[in-house]
Structures are given as C-alpha cells and as structure tokens.
Amino acid sequence: MNARGSTSRDAIVRAALAGARDRGWEEISMQEVRLRAGVSNGSLFHHFPTRQDLESAVVAAGLVEHDGALLVELRMSTGAREGVRGVVVRHLAWVRENPRVAVLLLSARPPALRAAVPPEVVEDSRRFFAEVAAWLRRHGWSGQPALPVVNALWLGPANDVARGWLTAGGEEPAGAVAAVVADAAWHALRAHLRVDA
C-alpha cells in the first residue's frame, strides 16, 4: 500500500475513534466519519467496505491506546503488588476516561475483531503480551498458570465491574471500588508471584 493509502486509512480510524469517544459508536454514521477524516466515499469504502470493518478497526485502535496506558503503569511499578494493583486501577481509570470506547472494547466479538485487525495491530498486541509476560517472570511467575488465565484473574473482575457500570448503571469503578478490585486481583495472583519484600 502506498503512503497516501496508509495515511487515508489512519485518518479514517482516528476520525472514527474520535467520533466514538465523543458521541458513542452507535451515534455516528459512516458519512460523519468520512467528513471528520476529510476523505472521499471511495477512500472510506475502499479501506472499510462495511461498518463492521470500521468498528473492528476502532476497537483495535482503542486496544492499542488502552494497552499503552497499562504498560506505562507496569513500567513505573517497583514491585509485584504495586504493579498488579496499579494495572487494575489504571484499567478502571481508562474505562472512566473513555466510557464510549470502553463499551466497544468490552463488547467486541473476538472472531470478527481478529479477522479485521491489521498486521501492525496484531504485532502491537503480541509485543504488549510479551512485555506483560516478561514483567510477570521478573516477579516470580513460572509460566503457570498460562498467561490467558493470569489475565483473567488479573483483569476479569475489573472488566465485570466496568461492564456493570457502563451497561447496567452499576457503581462507578472509582476510588474505593477500584481499590477493592485491585486488592482482589493481587490476592488472586500473589500465589503465582514473588511477594514484595
């Protein structure tokens, strides 16, 4: 693909992500995305033949942004407990800061998402999980349970809290709620990690 095609695709994704953040994915039209991106109909539909294709790209872009925020938290942590808790608190803060995008991420259909994710996003995801695994190993993780299980123990309860807040009007995951969920994640993972001295 030439540089101009890549630039058009990126502009469309940025415009769609901004629209999703501002008004919610369900509220923006393909025409609005096209106008925000400043591209032609031909360019929009060349890159994204269907709304589902564009939605998958928006979810992928949101994931890259979210994962970057979590990596910053991990890199700043000085111990296992601080890192585990910090990632949960940062995850819930990101949800509060980006509720309309978080709804998309937490409701994404994995098979459809995987089919539409560009190779560079797949590579970003691979690097994200490799860095998380390396951090876990530095803190005593043996590789068992497997990383998907560790991830479920770590962020699964936080995702449930976030979904409840976003879709069912549950309690906002701020302050004391985030601390409780972060403590629960630490209790779930501490047996698999080296406890801070």
TrEMBL record:
Keywords in alphabetical order: DNA-binding, Transcription, Transcription regulation
Every HTH tetR-type domain range: 6-66
Name the DNA-binding stretches: 29-48
PROSITE patterns registered for this protein in UniProt: HTH_TETR_2
In terms of superkingdom, the source organism counts as Bacteria
**InterPro entries of this UniProt entry?**
Homeodomain-like_sf (IPR009057), HTH-type_TetR-like_transc_reg (IPR050109), HTH_TetR (IPR001647), Tet_transcr_reg_TetR-rel_C_sf (IPR036271)
Instruction: Kindly indicate whether the keyword DNA-binding belongs to this entry.
Output: yes
Q: Which Pfam families match?
A: TetR_N (PF00440)
Stated name of the protein: TetR/AcrR family transcriptional regulator
